[in-house]
């Protein structure tokens, strides 16, 4: 097993965001986490990548306990992340953004750069353009490409389709599948549950910081409860469930202040 998450608990101040989440991701899989706003999906990814500390539980990656490992060492160990909101450097060029993804690595990264440009020809065409002047879809490609520059064994993707037109959504999901075919394991958080379940091998359903279902992705596509809650339309329709009745976290620009106040419950709760 490449990634094992065992009974992890995470708190924002005194408020529990994750309440014993367990999940596994095997080498070569695409695994998706689905759930309503505030369910704990983004917090799970941030905890795996080392951006949120564990209150309890254990994370094992590639046979090594990384529960207390600093985030930058997790990147070197093989965990890459493309965050929600993309988080590119707007004043840097496309190529400079990509090279930042390999910042912690030593040696020649020309092979990885070539592979990213093969995956995203649009980035190759615009490698000298400032990242902040690109479209939303191009910025999403840049965020994924930057994460791939670290040559990850597992790629954590947080809402890669958010804010994109349907045609671009299809393109992004096709690229995710191609990344997986090239040997990179993927753990995907995605509000578009229908699309996510169509490309994933397995899936976990989160509600209020707990896993309530796990199965092969194609089985969950046919699960009546999952279809009623998440596949009958936009996941926003599930916001009336208790899972959405959480204290929302401000948008990314306010994340640092919110973390200092320890008043938020979960990053997922800030999604519209």
TrEMBL record:
Keywords: Amino-acid transport, ATP-binding, Nucleotide-binding, Transport. Residues 3-233 form the ABC transporter domain. The keyword Membrane does not apply. It comes from the Bacteria. CDD domains: ABC_TM1139_LivF_branched. One of its GO terms (molecular function) is ATP binding. InterPro entries: AAA+_ATPase, ABC_branched_ATPase_LivF/BraG, ABC_transporter-like_ATP-bd, ABC_transporter-like_CS, BCAA_Transport_ATP-bd_LivF, P-loop_NTPase. Residues 239-272 are annotated as: Disordered. SMART domains: AAA (SM00382). Belongs to the ABC transporter superfamily. This is ABC transporter ATP-binding protein. It comes from Actinomadura miaoliensis.
